[in-house]
User: Which sequence fits this backbone?
């Protein structure tokens, strides 16, 4: 396992939405707290952080799509969820669908979209990854969203934007 260099990025004047799955709520609320803390630390104003709840990880991609299409205008969306392996293949179905849905959406929109969905074998692993003192995957996803938004802005400099949030092709 390698060590990743952290890229310092400003969240000043950024608007960010957190879309949080309620399933495995103790884990996802810790992810959300980590994401919120990271956004505030980067300079995102409290009033510019929007939170939305969905039932579970499967619902993240459709909710993110609607948010970008008709919700408040945001620079980035952070999808947060926790899928913990059980005794049935349900884990594989939900994890795959959540990842595919968010990946497909990320390629269709002009808004940064970060994947903050844990896929773990045990609740203990999920707790460790969500915990802000250990893994802080919520904070990591929020910082990735800000970095992606910064990149999108650099790429768009001097170019006319398309339909709000979506490509025309």
Assistant:
């Amino acid at each position: 396992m390698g060590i990743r260099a952290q890229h310092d990025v400003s969240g000043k004047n950024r608007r960010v939405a957190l879309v949080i799955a309620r399933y495995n709520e103790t884990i996802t609320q810790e992810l959300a707290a980590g994401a919120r803390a990271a956004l505030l630390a980067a300079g995102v104003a409290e009033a510019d952080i929007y939170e939305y709840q969905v039932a579970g990880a499967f619902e993240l991609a459709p909710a993110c799509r609607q948010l970008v299409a008709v919700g408040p205008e945001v620079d980035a969306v952070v999808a947060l969820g926790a899928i913990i392996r059980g005794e049935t293949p349900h884990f594989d179905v939900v994890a795959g669908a959540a990842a595919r849905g968010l990946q497909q959406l990320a390629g269709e929109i002009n808004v940064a979209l970060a994947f903050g969905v844990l896929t773990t074998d045990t609740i203990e692993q999920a707790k460790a990854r969500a915990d802000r003192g250990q893994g802080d995957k919520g904070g990591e996803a929020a910082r990735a969203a800000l970095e992606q938004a910064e990149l999108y802005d650099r790429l768009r400099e001097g170019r006319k934007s398309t339909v709000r949030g979506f490509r025309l092709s």
Observations:
- The helical segments are 25-41, 60-70, 90-108, 123-130, 137-156.
- The mean pLDDT is 90.
- The beta strands are 16-21, 49-54, 76-84, 112-120.
